[in-house]
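Service request form, structural biology core

Requester: graduate student, group of Dr. S.
Request type: structure prediction, single chain
Budget code: on file
Notes: please return the result as structure tokens.

Sequence provided:
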Amino acid sequence: MLQVCALISDAGGTTPNEDAAGHHGDWAWVIDGATGVSGATIDGLSDAAWFARALDQALRRILPDSGHLPTDAVLRRVVEDCAQAFAQATRDVPRAWHERPSAAFALLRRLGERLEMTTLGDCQIIHRAEDGQARVFGTSSIPVFEERTLGAARQALQETPDLTPAGLWDRVVDQLRANRRCMNVDGGYWVLSTDTAALAHVDRATIPVDGGPLALCSDGFLRLIDLFGCWAPDGFLALEDQAKAEAALRELRRIEAADDPHHGHLRLKRSDDASFILVRPA
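Core staff response, request fulfilled:
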């Protein structure tokens, strides 16, 4: 079993949370839906919020009867379940490939005396390695494409420094759509979507069960490390109860609120959805 010490999944703004987080028995996960670039919705939710919830709900349905299956087989069932739901929800509204919903995820599974870490996209898992150092597990080429978007944003702000958030979005949306067309193709980046091809591209590693904590994080929570540079991975492993995790979230939201997203740490969203789970093997 995995003991969940803290769990947070917090919307970054007024829109529905496009993250999800959960756990069941030997499993824990965080999911980060990719904000859509077509404005499409399903059942009144953004595509990203719908897909994050669909993945979360599918895991909760499938995991209780899947203890004997390899992780890839479980994930295949989850994706196929969500693909069927997506087809039913959009039967009369065909979507281009790049307009289909997608999500990054991090998944932790206990397998006896080993812990299996699986990631896809820019969600990551922090653990303590055998040398005692906190390590961040999970790689992705998504940052390459995000830098293209930020480059377009920098140019737009140089030309028009007083752009509103909506105005900046309008100036970079073509780049965002170009990025999205690189989803789940060779030479692009890999994330969960409504096909199973990306499952061949997950990052996976197993480590010994030693009782130490592990933290699963979406990129919104990882801003404390990656964007603002005010935390180190060790700090995340010290968020050993709900109160400490909520204090870290409050610090993140305070920093986001104080920092100019256009002329400080450049980003399209002042506050992003943020998810975090700290677990210990029980």
